[in-house]
Amino acid sequence: MNAQTSIAVEAGGRPATAVSAAVGLAGLCGLAGWTVVSRILDFEGPSAALVALLACGLPMIVWSLAVDKVHRASTTGIDWASPPRRLSETLDISLAKIAALWATWGAIACFYCIARWYWQGNYLFAMAVLGYGAAPLFLLSVPYILWLDRRLADPRDGAWHVGQIIVGRAELADREIVLDYLRGWAVKGFFLAFMFAALPGNWAEVIRTPAADILSGPVGLARWLIAAMFMVDITFATIGYMLTLKPLDAHIRSANPYMAGWVAALICYPPFILMNNGGPLDYHPGTADYAYWLGGAPGVLAAVAVLLVILTAIYAWATVAFGLRFSNLTHRGILTHGPYAWTKHPAYLSKNMFWWLATMPFLATTGSLVDVVRNTVVLGLVSGVYYWRARTEEQHLMADRAYRAYAEWMARHGLLARLGRRLFGQKASEPVAAE
Q1: Helices and strands of the chain, counted as H and E runs
Q2: Which residues pair with 15 in a beta bridge?
Q3: Which residue has the higher pLDDT, 27 or 421?
Q4: How many CA atoms are closer than 13 Å to the CA of 100, on its beta-carbon side?
Q5: Which of 89, 262, 327, 414 has the least C-beta neighbours within 10 A?
Q6: DSSP of 259-315
Q7: Distance (Å, whole) CA 323 – CA 60
Q8: Maximum distance among all alpha carbons in the chain?
Q9: Phi-psi region of 11 (alpha: psi -120 to 50; beta: other; left: phi over 0)
Q10: Chain-centre distance of CA 307, in angstroms?
């Protein structure tokens, strides 16, 4: 989409979304089916969790290609109208890109080897998966790049620019394009390992929990539903980091170039996480969950459990809405449907509301006022971190005129914007044409 092209809009004037809602629904149906089968057959192991990726990802790929025909989108950069170039015309380009890709993967592998946290705990599973997948990935990358470069309108992308540095022609490489390429792969390398590490535990909890525990009461049911929705979230997110492919229109358009964005995101994930037990933003000491405080009021307890399930459902929905495209710190197309029609940051909003309601930091089992004040303030700081993340993400995405149009629409029609106007008696701003 260039500056002369108008922004596509949907009913009600909302800018069109980059991913159809049906893509996520297709993946959700596949994942739900495999979950049912796995509970019946007790497939709770890590291999079953990997099959869940297939059960979820394949329906999304099929729908995207067969129904939405995303491979035909202009944003892929693939020229289907012209016959493919001869291999001899693109071979030099492809070889440079293969060299860059292999060098990048080698650098990521070296980082994994050096970083001690990848060789303990849940990360051991991630290292095993990535290790087994390395050889097929290296081999398949060759025919894929040779085929793709013959059809790309401009095959000289970030990989090509890095390739020029590798082959000794650094003067041909564009510094900004190289940096964006490296940032994109840094995102994939860091977060994909984390997703694989988290996948088996989430899956096992959903599959192994006995039906008797699930049906024991509102709290038991709520806890299982919440675990199931976190499993949905981690499965979709893992697929998103895996499938950054142009024929699926799921490639990374750009990675966040702002240091503040990276800091705000990384302090929410290991090994840099600040919210873990004993961390500077740990708000749990002296607290108990909602079931502890509301055990004597069954009606209120059930209502809070329902509300927590709803908040988690919104959180999971915010990831499902991405379909094949979820990833942190990247731009892979602008979403305007589902929960993103209500607020620009539904995952952050629902997640933080969940934490406040589930933890109740303003109550302390120790009876200490100091713990009450400390935990409340610290959780407030955690919420501040997510506000910071949201702002840095907007700073990155505002470079895209489609996001600017979406942000302008949300300022007039978003749930929080409308609520603010009702509370403070403000009028909606007049629409402004996107630049």
Answers
A1: 15, 2
A2: 9
A3: 27
A4: 26
A5: 89
A6: HHHHHHHHTTSTTT-SSSTTSTT---TT---HHHHHTT-HHHHHHHHHHHHHHHHHH
A7: 7
A8: 76
A9: beta
A10: 23
Contact (CB, 8 A) for 137 and 74: no
Given its phi and psi angles, is residue 367 left (phi above 0), alpha (psi -120 to 50 degrees) or beta?
A: left
426: confidence class by pLDDT, cuts 50, 70, 90: low
Q: What is the DSSP string of 89-123?
A: HHHHHHHHHHHHHHHHHHHHHHHHHH-GGGGSTTH
Tokens of 382: 């955690």
> CA–CA separation, 289 vs 293, rounded Å?
7
* Phi-psi sector, 335: left (phi>0), alpha (psi -120 to 50), beta: beta
87-114 and 123-149 helices cross at what angle (nearest 10)? 170
pLDDT digits (tens, 9 = 90+) for 321-364: 999 999 999 999 999 999 999 999 999 999 999 999 999 999 99
Structure tokens at 402: 């489609």
C-alpha closest to that of 23 among 61, 50, 55, 51: 61
3-state helix, strand, coil in the chain (%, to 5): 70, 0, 30
User: What is the model's pLDDT at position 422?
Assistant: 83
Percent of the chain with pLDDT over 70: 95
Is 237 exposed, middle or buried, given 0-12, 13-18 or 19+ CB atoms closer than 10 A? buried
What is residue 9's DSSP assignment?
A: B
pLDDT at res. 428: 55
Q: Where in the chain are the domains?
A: 11-424
